[in-house]
Structures
1.
Amino acid sequence: MSKIQMTTPLVEMDGDEMTRILWQMIKDELLLPFIDLKTEYYDLGLEHRNETDDKVTVESAEATKKYGVAVKCATITPNAARMTEYNLKEMWKSPNGTIRAILDGTVFRAPIVVKGIDPNVKSWKKPITIARHAYGDVYKNTEMVIPAAGKVELVYTSEDGKEERALVHTFNGPGVVQGQHNLNDSIESFAHSCFKYALDTKQDLWFATKDTISKKYDHTFKDVFQEIFDKEYKAAFDAAGIEYFYTLIDDAVARVMKSEGGFIWACKNYDGDVMSDMISSAFGSLAMMTSVLVSPAGYYEYEAAHGTVQRHYYKHLKGEETSTNSVATIFAWTGALRKRGELDNIPELCIFADKLEKACIKTIEDGKMTKDLALITSIEKPTVLNSRDFIIEIRKTLEAM
Ligand code: NAP
Ligand code: MG
């Protein structure tokens, strides 16, 4: 069998701990035997980030701008404990934060749906993808504790010195106050990413805020989305047979619980934080969740939604057996390979990505899975496999297909 040829390299961002071990196994067993894999390799493992003063992270993001598609392994975000463990020169920033700051964009997270790992919500038949705006609001707020009676005002001073004031509240006693902001640029790029991703995946897009109460702040989000949609995307949505649907956030929550799934739910920053944890836990497991950063300029960075699975890695280092689920990391690769195939017009690459995903799902549905899934499956007497054997089983399923 001849291997599938690639024309443009993928930007490969290697990572840390257990996911770094899985990364190599996935390449050896599931990719290299079938694809003449072209990647530009960046080692974002913490040791190498430290050696390069974290320049490697910036270079990998710049390479993503050059080639358009990246696949990323989970990485350690250092804290005090990691400073000593890895003898770090500095408490380097979160690689995901650095990459997001360079590429801009929106993170889309979707569960991988498998028969036998049933969502807790009975009506959900298809995945629900959360698109979370990643800038501003309560995450960049300014707060004040008001000790006693007094007046709080918002003051805007323009560059030419003009002032505009609005009364927040006249306090009769102690209380609290908070200032939030967002930027039109950021809201616009959020909107573009959502509309592009909806077209890309041919799914309806829902967006919700509380514009009836927040007549300026949330209303701006609503207006920006509607304007951009009408001007730039409506025709393409009609042609693709998909819909853009705006409603109030409380109405959206109620509808989501009764829906079948199969759409993208765009959320403001706080709503996305809260709702993505609800969606992922209701669908089963963080190890069955894909994540992709889509930039408004059309760059894509695929990864798993979970971390480096540190606890399993320490077991692995002690020579103990691990049963770590590699599905989300495999789907990061298939997402990136499929996108590369689409951009470079290599249908075999897209077909391979589809098949590998099907092989993962079939292996689990045949009752062969890692421990995290065995604990929650409705399949009777599942076979619990270790990290390597699970990947080997997926390879067997793939070869049989
Ligand atoms: P984690 O790696 O997601 O793991 C937390 C727990 O979830 C694990 O101990 C394990 O539970 C379970 N789990 C997660 N992924 C699994 C998988 N693929 N298969 C089986 N079980 C899985 O989160 P963490 O332990 O809080 O973080 C570890 C490191 O990852 C940190 O240094 C953090 O900075 C980093 N991190 C990176 C990213 C990223 O790069 N995108 C995201 C989050 C965290 P049991 O132990 O009960 O088996
Ligand atoms: Mg959260």
2.
Amino acid sequence: MAAESEKRECGFNHTEIEPAWQEAWDEADVFAIPDDAEDPAYVLAMFPYTSGNLHMGHVRNYTITDAFARFERMRGEAVLHPMGWDSFGLPAENAAEDRDTNPRDWTLSCMDSMREQLTRMGFGYDWDRELATCDPDYYRWNQWLFQRFQDAGLVERQAAELNWCPSCETVLADEQVEGEDELCWRCDTPIEHREMDQWFLTITDYAEELYEALDDLDDWPNNVREMQRNWIGKQEGASVAFDISGYDEVDIFTTRLDTIYGATYFSLAPGHPVAQEIAEDNDEVAEYIEMAAAADEDDLDVTSGVFTGEYAVNPATGEEIPVYVADYVLTDIGTGALYAVPGHDDRDHEFASAHDIPIQQVVEPAEDAEADPEDIDVQEAAYTEDGLLINSGEFDGLESEAARDRFVSEFDGEHRTEYNLRDWGISRQRYWGTPIPMVWCNECGAVPVPEEDLPVELPEFVQTTGNPLDATEDWKHTTCPECGGPAERETDTMDTFIGSSWYFLRYVSPDLEDAPFDSERASDWMPVDQYVGGSEHATMHLIYARFFTKVLDDIDLIDGVREPFENLTTQGMVLGEDGLKMSKSRGNGVSPQRIIDEYGADTARLFIMEAAQPEKEFAWDSEGVRSAHDFLQSLYTLATEYSRGEVSTGEGSTIADYVAREIDATAASATSEYEDFRFNHALQAVRELVSLLRRYREVTAVDPGTFENGLVTATKLLAPVAPHVAEEIWAKLGNDGLLAEAGWPAAEAPEDYDLERRLIEDTREDVRDIVETVGIEDPAEITLAVAPAWKHDVADVARDAENVVPAVMQNEDLQRHGEDAADFAKDLAARGHVDQFLSPERELATLQRAAWLIEREFEADVAVLSAKDAPDDLASKAEPGRPAIDIVE
Ligand code: ANZ
Ligand code: ZN
């Protein structure tokens, strides 16, 4: 009992200190940034979807940005660290139905509870800049920007396949189609696929820049850049015209023009105009096209297709090859037509095998290729590598690459670049989103809602089988802004990704009423310096935001900012204690709430940051959580005892000098680790410093200046990660003002301090080795002797010499040491490499400062001597970086 209450008395109580410091920060407005700040450090976490609950992934994400923002702030930077809500989307409509409320009220209550949870974690945001995408003051700018994109020619109507419920007579979002059988979520009727016109942003206009600029995003993870490259899918190839008698010439797109001699059939996409034309007189083809249009993407395999009875002329061979219509050829890729080479393409091979089409080899492995030409049998499988041409007339022997170039002119083709990237369909047939600001008029067509009528606000929510906007008659019926006649509002809303494509700009001027953001300030404050979020956003969100930024720059809303995020960190997952992904069904989730209640936010933050570097995943570990908690308590206790005068103080000493140097070195290394986002390394250094202070206090009366500096430094270095307890200690040590606003420790390590550390470590290791191998039970006296200056001189000469021994022997100063110098030179030469060493004076001083560590470890007296003060036979064994060691029992 006594021990327990003693602990209470010394420890901190997180349930008291955490809310108190949160309030203090709030009152002092620590995290607000003035509008006139110049180019602040912009530290941003991907804003959360308003689910109502903070999970561990959020906690990790927001701990990382908060720690970095606090670090930058303590270093004297102006810091923009805002928070907001990605608050549109279908889940709110479902929740509204389940709970008999409406999406708005539901979403607002989720925001309230999440805000509260974020605050309890001690995250420091400039809440004056809070935004929510479902707020009309925000989404009016989605609408306004949509119209600016229209002005810039970046908005199009295009046909797209939608889910249609014939019973509810409504379009359904993908999420409203349930199960393998694709049933309507409301009435369980099997849905149909219908082509309908939708709103698109023509992001493909930016495909080339989005692709090429990835090369310059040096501070993005490579895997994210690679995922974006794949998503954009740039392919350099060629197009060539083929004749089909009785029809227009058909252009094909290919990346393998070198294989043209091997084309054994020709294939059109079902949507290709020539396929449609053929279908007019060919029932079989017509039926196939209809079937393909109705089928679901995954229903048809590669072999699905139909022979048209027509033939195309291969311009290389003059031969006629059969024309097929096949579903694996996509209408909107390339030209929607291709010549097929079953010998060298897997899909063509499968199709040809199924339709008994000949397979012809036209490329064989080159000499340096892995495959042996003898082993290639294209009847069995396609050979898809480059190589040397065969069966290609006068071009046999040509390399694939050269052939691709040559054939462009040979067969009247054109170089052509294609992208897999499609235009961005932004129409959603649901309620909880930004209304697309258009009106449909029978006379005038699609008419933009005039700027002064923005925002087009969402009407009250109603429960219906389809889209609530369609069912709200008085909202839907309006007049045409152009002719004043009766008209209907567009009832589609925007993809929620629109809202997250520019929110980082709104934070710059969140209350601005006449523009989405202050252009001048945004141009100064952007790009975001550090963006942190989940890797699931590697493609969509992070491509859309890049696209928006480029467009906004092109339409002069920002100036010279073409990329939104300079540094990107994608944080790894937090796994359950069992090493598996946290999930409800597994029951291995850890609730942030519970951890905060039990241990406090600081402990959760510290554990998470120590567990791994941000990019890596890690498993939850209760032991690690307790260790983090114990560490915080122990630092707090040490500081408390010191502040109460319970730590005995005395004069400065060599020990104090050692500790002082370690403090500086720790501050320096932790600072550079913070800069590099290696928080776990920084925290490891802090733990070591605190453990050193504890040992210091145990061996001697401490020098108060040094000891207090150590406590303050450790506390400051810890403050970004465990800010509440750090404030508490800071106050305990008698400091005024908030630590969150205090300066970062000066961070100059003593010069070549790593050499000092290595010398000390190596020496301790050597002593341990000797004690062990010689079997010394109880060492009484340990003598260390530093090498004489001439040995250092030999090492210096040897380090730069090509021929070590002659170089040393020709040195006049070293000649005095004759044989000895020559022997040592030979030794060094044999090692092939000479390290950097401290001077003999510095070695002596370093070891003297560290002697207490050895004394403590071996409970023996330690003497550190210069070469001339040491017995000759001992000193002669010393080398630079390796003092001689004598141990007496
Ligand atoms: C002839 C050829 C020979 C091709 C060969 C490939 C290998 P990847 O595969 O990503 O490089 N293609 C062209 N238009 C298409 C369409 N609308 N739908 C489906 N496929 C289409 O993409 C380029 C290749 O995809 C092109 O090069 C073309 O087939 C096919 F040994 O042409 B290739
Ligand atoms: Zn009209």
